[in-house]
Amino acid sequence: MKNELLTIGPFTVYGYGLMIAAGILAAYWTGEYRAKKYGLEAEHVFNFVVWCVVGGFLGAKVLYWVTNIKEIWKDFSTILNFADGWVVYGGIIGGILSAMLYAKRKGLYFPAYFDLLIPSVALAQGFGRIGCFLAGCCYGVETDGPVAIVFHESAYAPNGIPLLPTQLFSSGLDFLHFFILIWFAKRKKADGQVGGLYLILYSIGRFVLEFYRGDLIRGSVGMLSTSQFISIFTVAAGFAIFVWCGKRAGVQYK
User: Fold this and answer.
1) Could you write out the DSSP letters of every residue in 197-214?
2) In a domain? residue 158
3) How confident is the prediction for the chain on average, in pLDDT?
4) 108 domain residue, yes or no
5) Structural domain harbouring 89
6) Residue 228: inside a domain, yes or no?
7) Distance, CA of 226 to CA of 209 (rounded, Å)
8) Does residue 252 have a pLDDT over 50?
9) Total domain count for the chain?
């Protein structure tokens, strides 16, 4: 695939950056629309998005540093490289913590806004993974099957080798998660359950997809990749949030 989509003089439009921007805008628009629909304060959505984006990028970078501490220890200049080196789970954790902090500062009921905005996160991730596909990062294992993509100008994926397009698989799952969460939001028993369901769905999908990723340089914990190891805890957290919120609503109802 081609990451450099358009060049006008010194200005270049990169597919990865364009998809990230599209994802953020889509997240904001859907979040604002749903806030008005559900009677929440829509004027806070923009600030939530800004806080989540900043916290998400910071969390993604920090977790990358943590999981690659040996390489960074050898060359501290890599800390200043912001062109690549991000961990999605760090972005998710950083984004959620930032949203919690903003809600606390403004006196907002976080579980309600968590449920409001988490489908938008899945939507943004769907666009972001298309950006990964265009750039060639997060690539899959080598394959001789009918579903394969060959990169020719990628700075990340091995060029000239048929690979599984795990980026597109991940993107498809993210978009599917978005629609499932939107559907479930109308049927939830309590605030916070949509957020819990997101953590469950994403963690399970990510755990499975990791078996087909080819960029093993991302690190491992025993027999599991770093992301698979984190998935164990995030899926447990998702179940705990989902059940706890449901039981708490039941107690309040009684």
Assistant:
1) HHHHHHHHHHHHHGGGB-
2) yes
3) 89
4) yes
5) 4-136+145-184
6) no
7) 13
8) no
9) 1
